[in-house]
Amino acid sequence: MSGVEVNKLILAALTTLLVVLLIGNVVNELSHREPLERNAYAVAVPDTDTGGEPAPTAPVAAAPELESVTPLLASADLAAGEKVARKRCSSCHTFNDGGSNKIGPNLWGVVGKQKAAADGFRYSNAIREKGGVWSYDDLNAFLAKPKNFIKGTLMNFPGFKSVEDRAAIIAYLRQQSDSPLPLPE
Ligand code: HEC
Fold first, then answer.
1. What is the CA(182)–ligand 1 centre distance, in A?
2. DSSP letters along 90-136, please?
């Protein structure tokens, strides 16, 4: 083999190598440019598409039933009720006939009376829109947690957890009236 032929062979080999490398490069480029059909790794996205239907809400544990005061009213401790009224309510309320409104309305005759009906008191819209009379059940719920029973009420009072406390104050309220509402059967 002459030197020239050897050179030709080497050139041919180098050319082939170059072409192979180029093709490999092009193939590599093309395969990278193809868009991925799906994420290379899974991303947890909550499925919120409910097709226009409201999303189902998680089941909420039912609120525990509020214990009724009605079986306790007849034998409720009136003296205890009066004491609680003085201690816990009298900073905002008067209870006597013709008593003035303070931060809260006068409460004479409130049991069985239309809600938000004390003369000259500016009630919140929340209590006015609640409507109806102050039944024993409504007072029970209101005095357990005022802001639960009437969302947006101005009465800033946490409420009584104990059903005996609620019965005592309601029995006392009932008596602050010209004609106390009959006790429940
Ligand atoms: C910090 C002041 C405050 C305290 C303490 C308070 N109240 Fe009230 N109460 C109010 C206000 C203010 C309203 C009017 C609520 C509204 O307009 O949303 C109200 C409303 C009421 C009503 C409804 C009256 C109506 O005419 O419809 C009752 C019943 C009541 N309170 C009972 C009580 C009792 C019983 C206590 C004590 C255990 C008490 N409140 C303690 C401020 C108070």
1. 22
2. TTT---STTPPP-SS---TT-TTSBTT--TT----HHHHHH-SB--H
pTM for the model = 0.73
Is residue 104 lining ligand 1, measured as CB closer than 6 Å? yes
Give CA–CA dist 171/89, Å, rounded. 15
Beta carbons within 10 angstroms of residue 67's beta carbon: 15
Using one digit for the tens of pLDDT, what is the confidence trace for 17-52? 777 777 677 666 656 655 556 666 666 655 555 556
155 lines ligand 1 (CB under 6 A): yes
For atom 18 of ligand 1, which residue has the closest CA? 153
